[in-house]
Write a structure and sequence with these properties.
The complex is a heterodimer of chains A (about 525) and B (about 280). Chain A has about 525 residues and is α+β, with helices and mostly antiparallel strands. Chain A is about 35% helix and about 25% strand. In chain A, a hairpin with a 2-residue loop joins strand 11 and strand 12 (about 200-205). In chain A, helix 4 (about 330-350) runs parallel beside helix 7, helix 6 (about 365-400) packs antiparallel against helix 7 (about 410-440) and helix 8 (about 445-465) runs antiparallel to helix 9. Chain A is elongated and about 125 Å long. With about 280 residues, chain B is mostly helical. Chain B has one domain (about 25-280). Chain B has 13 helices and no strands. Chain B has helices at about 10-20, 25-35, 40-60, 70-75, 80, 85-105, 110-115, 120-155, 175-200, 205-225, 225-235, 240, 260-280. In chain B, helix 3 (about 40-60) runs parallel beside helix 8, helix 6 (about 85-105) runs antiparallel to helix 10 and helix 10 (about 205-225) runs antiparallel to helix 11. Classes of the chains: A alpha+beta (about 525), B mainly alpha (about 280). At the A-B interface, helix 2, helix 4 and helix 8 of A face helix 3, helix 4, helix 6, helix 10 and helix 11 of B.
């Protein structure tokens, strides 16, 4: 009798680290032709829709609203954007009654009235405003401006139609002063002092007790600056777009008139008289006879239109020349849908084919399997998302610009954030789908849940024209908040505009919205891990 | 068995009979499958609940500020507003229809089904009829409840006859058309989903395709930036065109009449069913 030694395989034991699980999942993903095709479909769909949108926009009739100029061949073109000191597109057109100020000095004035005219009900752009009303961001007051050149630096103290006294500078800066509306019974005193590059704004209710509102430094302010009284009255924004893209309610040009007195100055003022006029020729306003000033016994009445503020893009206004590259990214929805399907099947196919039992036998640490799947999927989805977004933006911008349109300029870090953010959005949404699929283990349920969580809120908020409060709320708390990474331009509270998802604005800041999506995804992953470990496969 | 009757028929009659013969049995088999699945009932209930809940939520969120309640200013169409939940509820309807066929593929049941009932078109026809019937029933409940909610909620938010809005009532032609048309619309969405699911077999791809067809047209149309393209996209899309049936104000501004719009959805549904039938006929299960 001989004792037989038990058989030992001569092969070295395989390692079972995370790298091996990752490699296994990687191999699974890349060798299923349908999934790779699904990702290619996602890329092509995202880019294709971007191209479609660009081609559609490029063949639209050109409108001149918002700075686009009409060329003789009918295309919108030219360098339509005025850039401010910060490099952002700005509106710099208002009625300015000014004199040069050499060196340092100050100007003080009392404002006793600011009234506005609104466009008639049911008007179209181009009709003269006739209906008395309140324009919340109508502005009148005093200004120190580097020059009359478009987009030059400035600082101003002003009363507004509905937002109290403000100090504003260089188009984007805005600080509140005294609250409340101005009237003869409750006038507002404003003062600006210029000392080198520094401009200080004060306000007062009585002309005796002054409060500093703000101190701003205008880099490179020349020695002689233009100082005087101004009135601006921005267009009312359209406040709704219905499902057919037809804007409803509001919208149209306004005009405002301010009464200012008790003007006093210090410093060297070489000119002998005031000069009034729009800072650029405002043909529409001048044709309607809006704009001008009267000076009677130290009392100035200044009427004007226009605005001095950052310009706001509006992708829902076709042909206005105010579209950003964000509009081409709308194809992300279609790409996301394809990625969702792939992500679902990446998980549910394991259950359908019984492969999950092999997978878990080979790698019994179930949490690791889920993590490996999530990483592999996120990598593929990120690449697909970025490629789709790049394709859409590159081809879309090319088509738009080759038709002579200009795109609303964005700083390059913003463009990078939008494109990389889209990739990250698609990747995180794919992981969310994977987690949901691991929880429900059914393809239809997983796809529908993710679609309902990501696309339907956007659809309801942007397309169905829900009331703004509900729409904002939807895009704050649902995973659809992640689309905020595609927002091109920040909201400026001091500019009334059509801030809505359909015009490219989200209620949360870009990365805050993305964090909401990540939060949902982490919660779903935690639930998936718990269930995967607790349940029999 | 009814086989005995075939012999006496002409060839054309024989073909017709071949599709119809055994139809009661096929219907009965499919009905048994559908009725004994717990998910069918829950999904139908979910579709009704979701539709009514969203409709009521939208109706109660709609407001108009004092002095600007005229229809021309708010753009509110009471019938369309109080049926808004359909835009969400239709997703559940699509799930019901997709599952009716793709579940058979994912479990392998389809091979048993086609062995027992080799007339494949009859199987598809039976599924279409049964899913259609169930969805019609559920949609009727959902639409009636949504209209009732709108009728009760909207006048409280300023949408009163004094401001130029009719009180919702199935007694007036436009509202009746909107309500009945919405029921038909949901049934057509179910047929579209069934056709797509039959063609692609995989449930994830099927539901993805259906949701994409329904929701992405309007999203793209909203930003395409060209009014002509927008109109074309909207009148060709199964959802936007079909929901023209809900419009009761300014019907003249629509690119298509409401019934033509519903016809577009019907064409999509028919196209999907024909594609599904062809593929089912030609392909191995």
């Amino acid at each position: 009798m001989t004792a037989t030694a038990p058989y030992r395989s001569p092969a070295a034991p395989g390692r079972d680290g995370f790298a091996q699980v990752l490699h296994a999942e990687w191999t699974k993903f890349r060798t299923v032709r349908g999934w790779i095709i699904g990702l290619i479909v996602a890329i092509l769909a995202a880019a294709g829709i971007g191209i479609l949108v660009a081609a559609g926009g490029a063949s639209a009739t050109c409108q001149t609203a918002g700075g686009g100029t009409v060329r003789h061949d009918g295309a919108c073109g030219g360098s339509a954007f005025t850039l401010g000191p910060g490099g952002e597109p700005v509106t710099d057109n208002f009625y300015f009654v000014r004199q040069p100020l050499a060196g340092n000095g100050s100007i003080t004035v009392r404002v006793t009235s600011l009234t506005s005219l609104l466009p008639p009900v049911g008007q179209v752009f181009g009709t003269a405003p006739t209906r008395p009303g309140v324009v919340p961001w109508s502005k009148a007051g005093i200004m120190v401006k580097a020059s009359l050149a478009q987009g030059s630096a400035y600082a101003a103290m002003m009363v507004t139609g509905g937002n109290g006294v403000r100090m504003q500078w260089n188009y984007t800066g805005d600080t509140p002063g005294l609250p409340g509306a101005v009237s003869a019974a409750s006038p507002r005193w404003l003062r600006l002092t210029r000392d080198g590059d520094t401009v200080t704004g004060y306000d007062s209710t009585d002309g005796v007790h002054w409060t500093v509102v703000g101190v701003v430094r205008l880099a490179g302010l020349p020695s002689t600056v233009q100082v005087g009284l101004f009135t601006a009255s921005p267009d009312l924004p359209v406040n709704a777009v219905n499902i057919a893209g037809i804007s409803q309610g509001g919208g149209g040009g306004t005009a405002s008139t301010a009464v200012l007195d008790h003007l006093s100055r210090s410093g060297a003022w070489p000119a002998s008289a005031w000069t009034g006029g729009y800072t650029v020729g405002d043909l529409a306003a001048e044709a309607q006879g809006i704009g001008g000033y009267r000076q009677v016994a130290g009392r100035f009445t200044v009427t004007g239109q226009g605005d001095v503020a950052p310009e706001i893009p509006n992708q829902s206004d076709p042909g206005s020349g105010k579209g950003t590259i964000a509009i081409y990214l709308i194809g992300t929805f279609l790409g996301l849908l394809a990625v969702t399907v792939v992500a679902t099947v990446f998980m549910t196919a394991e259950y359908r084919r019984g492969l999950i039992r092999t997978t878990l036998a080979a790698s019994p640490r179930r949490g690791r399997v889920l993590a490996a799947k999530a990483l592999v999927l996120a990598a593929f989805a990120f690449v697909a998302g970025v490629l789709g977004a790049l394709g859409a933006v590159i081809f879309g911008a090319h088509i738009t610009e080759s038709h002579g349109y200009v795109l609303f300029p964005e700083p390059w870090p913003t463009e990078v954030r939008m494109i990389v953010g889209t990739g990250a959005l698609v990747a995180v949404a794919a992981v969310l789908t994977l987690a949901v699929a691991a929880i429900v283990r059914r393809s239809v349920a997983a796809v529908t849940i993710v679609f309902a969580a990501i696309v339907v809120p956007y659809f309801l908020a942007a397309i169905v024209n829900l009331p703004t409060g509900v729409a904002d709320w939807l895009l704050r708390v649902t995973p659809a908040a992640g689309f905020a990474v595609q927002q091109a331009t920040p909201r400026y509270p001091q500019v009334a505009a059509f801030y809505a998802p359909v015009s490219g604005f989200y209620p949360l800041a870009p990365w805050a919205g993305f964090a909401v999506l990540c939060g949902w995804t982490l919660a779903a992953l935690a639930a998936a891990r718990y269930l995967l470990r607790r349940r029999d496969a | 068995m009814s086989q005995a009757v075939y012999g006496a028929r002409s060839r054309r009659g024989w073909v017709a009979m071949a599709v119809l013969a055994g139809m009661p049995e096929t219907l009965h088999a499919e009905w048994t499958k559908l009725r004994t699945l717990a998910s069918t009932f829950w999904l139908l209930a979910g579709a009704v609940a979701l539709t009514v809940a969203v409709s009521a939520a939208v109706a109660s969120a709609a407001t108009c500020s004092q002095g600007s309640c005229a229809p021309a200013q708010t753009g509110v169409d009471p019938a369309k507003l109080s049926l808004a939940g359909v835009q969400v509820g239709q997703a559940v309807v699509a799930i019901i229809a997709v599952l009716a066929i793709s579940d058979e593929y994912s479990t392998g049941m389809i091979r048993v089904t086609l062995t027992a009932m080799p007339r494949r078109l009859a199987v598809l026809a039976a599924k279409a009829a049964l899913v259609g019937g169930l969805v019609l029933t559920a949609a009727t409940v959902a639409v009636l409840a949504s209209v009732l909610a709108g009728r009760l909620l909207l006048p409280g938010h300023g949408f009163t006859p004094a401001n130029g809005y009719q009180v919702l009532s199935l007694g007036n032609g436009g509202d009746l058309r909107a309500a009945a048309g919405t029921v038909l619309y949901l049934a057509l969405v179910a047929q579209l989903a069934l056709g797509v699911a039959t063609a692609v077999r995989d449930s994830a791809v099927a539901i993805g395709t259906v949701l994409g067809l329904l929701y992405l047209f309007p999203i793209v149309a909203a930003v395409v930036g060209n009014q002509h393209w927008q109109r074309h996209l909207e009148q060709a899309a199964p959802m936007t065109a079909g929901l023209y049936i809900q419009v009761t104000e300014d019907v003249g501004r629509l690119p298509l009449t409401p019934w033509q719009g519903l016809g577009v959805t019907a064409l999509w549904a028919a196209g999907a069913l024909i594609l599904g039938a062809t593929v089912l006929r030609l392909r191995d299960a």
